[in-house]
């Protein structure tokens, strides 16, 4: 009975949810790593929105970052206690405040990135789906309970954190390091930052992530006289081909829990300072994005990258002006070693399966993804966490949008998780 009443209460809040999502989208919250000021303004707007809501406790934890506005990256925890007060079991719903940069503005054909519009049942704008849709859904799952005076069985902890898009060093990772007392082994955790269009995919496992940059240094020279220098571009191409082949051959296991079921090793970014067709560059960089099945160790991947570097250095070895070239250096940009998966029979998985079946009449698929969500941090602490939402997968795309229906319906699922 309560679940149905709360669902009706959420429906009545639909227009308010859309309005709040648009308010939040209007505020760029781009990491200083990507040239932005951070999440301060967006956090202040969120605190202003909820200031009169009857949360039992709202705490702000400011991670220091001198590059960001006011020198901080805010992380907000809002508590709504369950029927046993502070003794109630706890459900975290964790979303992030930051967004990625808009990218090529010419590809935004519906509206400008931070000027949200509603069209065809969707809210368009940067950050609308990633992660605004779920952020607002979590807020209004709780507000519906508040409006009805209902205390759920579980205390709901709404976490709105910074820095998800660029590594969480000033977000969840910082919170866990500086405030370990906030987290309990018996907590249940929902991270609504991944899923599918039907809302039928529950992620319980992630691959390890390794971003590595390879820096090659040779000797710039006029392209008509290549023997006088060492073309770093050619060395880097050879290195990239050799490493790519080795990694795919060596780490070739498959695990059908994941999609795709194998480890992936993708050269993504690259370039050199050559600004003319007739200059053979003396420097070149290439970046690999590696998503590695948990059975493999990232230390071994890095060791392979270094071994190939030594082989390439020997192959192109040349002394110029008393200096032995090329130099080939491997630099880690980001690393996340995958923890053990959330067990399929854990309470949060079974509860979410049950609620989705009751609300939508659909069976869910349980699986793994390429990595990069907050859930991994909880799993490292052996706290079961799942990633789930109903998404059109518009994250990071031009013309990003959030489907209003998804936002409202996911709020109902979130409320039900706390009630059961």
Automatic annotation (TrEMBL):
GO terms for molecular function: metal ion binding; succinyl-diaminopimelate desuccinylase activity. InterPro entries: ArgE/DapE (IPR010182), Bact_exopeptidase_dim_dom (IPR036264), Peptidase_M20 (IPR002933), Peptidase_M20_dimer (IPR011650), Peptidase_M20A (IPR050072). Coiled coil: none annotated. Its cofactor is Zn(2+); Co(2+). Its EC number is 3.5.1.18. Keywords: Cobalt, Hydrolase, Metal-binding, Zinc. Residues 204-316 form the Peptidase M20 dimerisation domain. Pfam families: M20_dimer (PF07687), Peptidase_M20 (PF01546). Belongs to the peptidase M20A family. This is Succinyl-diaminopimelate desuccinylase.
